[in-house]
Design goal:
The protein folds into 2 domains: 192 residues, Rossmann fold, CATH 3.40.50; 103 residues, GMP Synthetase, Chain A, domain 3. The two termini are 37 Å apart. The strands form 3 sheets. The chain has a 5-stranded parallel beta sheet with strand order 3-2-1-4-5, sandwiched between helices. Strands 6, 7, 8, 9 and 12 form a 5-stranded mixed beta sheet that branches. It has a two-stranded antiparallel ribbon with strand order 10-11. The chain is of the alpha/beta class. Helix 9 links the parallel strand 6 and strand 7. Helix content is 41%, strand content 18%. Bound molecules: xanthosine-5'-monophosphate. Xanthosine-5'-monophosphate binds next to loops. It is an enzyme of class 6 (ligase). Pathway: Purine metabolism; GMP biosynthesis; GMP from XMP (L-Gln route): step 1/1.
Length: 323
């Protein structure tokens, strides 16, 4: 029968056998999945693992610092940080199509890893052959790899990999659902703030901007997202909702009035959802006072935003993310 202890034991043995005396690198995204995958692989092969954190510029406010400080403090893992913001923004310039964005982000991610790999090899010798990924069971199913269902979105860690990939993959969470991953993380001794973190997609804020992704738009969305997260946390709602994507409709403008002037700004969409495993979801019935506070703060504090709207669609028919 399924226990977190047996999953860990089984995976540790399998990873040791797969890797032998070679080396692995693991991308940390700041999320639960990659953190638990990394901690599991570190348990199996210790210092043969080097973690790489790619700052693709699509992260939320404070996220890079959280990985650099909290995760390293919790695990003692070897970490290499790569600042690749400029490269990602250049690759995404002029691109509005959601699938194209996902493919570009996935491709650039792997390219940056290959660079990091080359640097790690220069440092540690030629045995860096494995790439650890925090792929979960729902990712496998939704990318058509599990039950033969249609490809709904190419998740960047499953469907979007380039064909000239040079690594063998280690995917220790491939059979698990999110709640099981959290239990494994807890059993591995990861701190509560990491284990209970709400999910955040690998392509980051890049798939929460409908339209072209630019530095200005990212900065705008980062501010709005930080306000929404702050107010949800202050209201004690983090455990009640699965996640709350905040989406910028960058190509949409509407007329507003602020002070004694007319504005012509962008709308921000709040997408709070409740879910067990992200395969299906319902929109969260957030208290009106909390919605009001978020709306007031975002329209007051975020430049060029003059409207906040609430997404009241379940999944299906809507997916959780907008792209
Ligand atoms: P959707 O939008 O498909 O999202 O209903 C389901 C869950 O998956 C997250 N998500 C991703 N996670 N890479 C990830 O690691 C991705 O490309 C990706 N796309 C969506 C999403 O945040 C939600 O929790």
């Amino acid at each position: 029968s399924w226990t977190t202890g047996s999953v860990i034991e089984e995976q540790v043995a399998a990873i040791r056998e797969q890797v032998g005396d070679r080396r692995a690198i693991c991308g940390l995204s700041g999320g639960v999945d990659s953190a638990v995958a990394a901690a599991l692989v570190q348990k199996a092969i210790g210092s043969q693992l080097t973690c790489v954190y790619v700052d693709h510029g699509l992260m939320r406010k404070g996220e890079t610092e959280q990985v650099e400080k909290d995760f390293v403090a919790a695990t003692g893992v070897q970490l290499k940080v790569v600042d690749a913001e400029e490269r990602f923004l250049e690759a995404l310039a002029g691109v509005s199509d959601p699938e194209e964005k996902r493919k570009i982000i996935g491709r650039e991610f792997i390219r940056v890893f290959e660079q990091a790999q080359a640097e790690i090899i220069a440092d540690q010798g030629p045995a860096v052959e494995f790439l650890v990924q925090g792929t979960l069971y729902p990712d496998v199913v939704e990318s058509g790899g599990g039950t033969g269902t249609a490809n709904i979105k190419s998740h960047h860690n499953v469907g979007g990999l380039p064909e000239d990939l040079e690594f063998q993959l280690i995917e220790p969470l491939r059979k698990l659902f999110k709640d099981e991953v959290r239990m494994v993380g807890q059993e591995l001794g990861l701190p509560e703030e990491i284990v209970q973190r709400q999910p955040f997609p690998g392509p980051g804020l890049g798939i929460r901007i409908v339209g072209e992704v630019t530095k200005d738009r990212l900065d705008l969305l980062r501010e709005a997202d930080a306000i929404a997260r702050e107010e949800l946390t202050a209201a004690g709602l983090d455990r009640d909702i699965w996640q709350c994507p905040v989406v910028l409709l960058a190509d949409v403008r509407s007329v507003g009035v602020q002070g004694d002037g007319r504005t012509y700004g962008h709308p921000i969409v709040l997408r709070p959802v409740s879910s067990e495993d992200a395969m299906t979801a319902d929109w969260s019935r957030l208290p009106y006072e909390v919605l009001a506070r978020i709306s007031t703060r975002i329209t007051n504090e975020v430049k060029d935003v003059n409207r906040v709207v609430l997404d009241v669609t379940s999944k299906p028919p809507g997916t959780i993310e907008w792209e």
